[in-house]
Amino acid sequence: MAVAAGAIERAAAPAGDGAVPLGDAEFRFLRDFVYEHCGIALGEHKRQLVQGRLARRLRALRLPDYAAYCALLRDDPHAELGELASAISTNVTSFFREPHHYELLENELLPQWLAHKRRDGDRLRIWSAGCSTGEEPYALAMVLAEALERHGAAAVDAKILATDLSPQALETARNGVYPLDRLGGIGDERRRRWLLRGAGEYEGYACVHPRLRELVTVQPLNLLHDWPMRGPFDAIFCRNVVIYFDQPTKQRLFGRYAALLRAGGHLFLGHSESLHGISDDFELIGRTVYRKRA
Questions:
Q1: Cystine design at 262: which of 6, 30, 162, 232 (Cβ 3.0–4.6 Å)?
Q2: 4-88: CATH topology
């Protein structure tokens, strides 16, 4: 079967078992392509990782070698972009990862925000940028739903936006179905309230409660491209995402985050990430928690 415009012919049998070499020219092309479209900087030390990770894509697409894969990317850069980004990045996430962030939301930020929004009739918006398979936004939704009830703020227009580039991760996030062994960060009371245990073909899985689905909107988004949303957001969670970016890309990204956050809005980063020397738009107020300067 030919790729569009007949650029290359796909192999009749699957390839990419790890023995197919990644040549110098192909690695340079992939390195430049990934940086341009995803902001991910791949050094020479990542060459073996790229070769191993993309071997699965060669098999899936029935391509004979990496030259054919590069030709596919040249022919239609966007069709394969999500799969490529997913293959070369590590989507590690869990429910209530870095629990001090959720504690700050629950005990301090949400009570303050909801008091103001009930009074002013304003909306509340949180963005999970790089949501991966959805554990982060659904954990946020649990905390938010409980706060709305606790503070008598059911009338407040409150939503969580969850975005990612990986098609596979987004599919899992939309489904909201997780193996029971992935629920370790959720306490027993929240498990009983917010998760529906599966039966039959879903034995060993749990599905998030419909109330959480009401609060979470899952959408594809490339952080380097145009953003359709206008904000403003009260908080942005961008945790363990910018570890793949170089300094100029981080500076541009955090500048765009600052533009979408309310004055005094909060930015949450991963445990190994920092804004030191990158952005003056924020002040550090806690462990990997930043507040937008007025």
A1: 232
A2: Chemotaxis Receptor Methyltransferase Cher; domain 1 (1.10.155)
